[in-house]
Design a protein that fits this description.
The chain is of the alpha+beta class and 89 residues long. It contains three helices and five strands. It folds into two domains: 1-38; 41-89, HU Protein, Chain A (Irregular).
């Protein structure tokens, strides 16, 4: 399912128009991104939790040359599914 299909499904299930559904979806995604930038968790009970994790600097290997390379430390988004989401699969 891509974004357009998700918007269509939201419109169908909620009774909103596609324009309203798109606006709602984009507002939700923007809000989650803003909160993650502030290093806050976004917890949707029954669905899951969005958070930010720190990855330590580490050594890796260049797949083309086989040479060791240093990979910088960085922050990455993380999603942990909730128990109800896990049960529904």
């Amino acid at each position: 399912m891509n974004k357009a299909q998700l918007i269509e499904a939201i419109a169908r299930e909620s009774g909103l128009t596609k324009v309203e559904s798109k606006r709602a979806l984009e507002a939700m995604l923007d809000t989650i991104q803003k909160r993650l930038r502030k290093r806050e968790e976004v917890r949707l009970v029954g669905f899951g939790t969005f958070s930010v994790k720190d990855r330590k600097a580490r050594m890796g290997i260049n797949p083309r040359t086989g040479e060791p390379i240093k990979i910088k430390a960085r922050r990455v988004p993380h999603f942990s599914p909730g128990s109800e989401l896990k049960k529904g699969l």
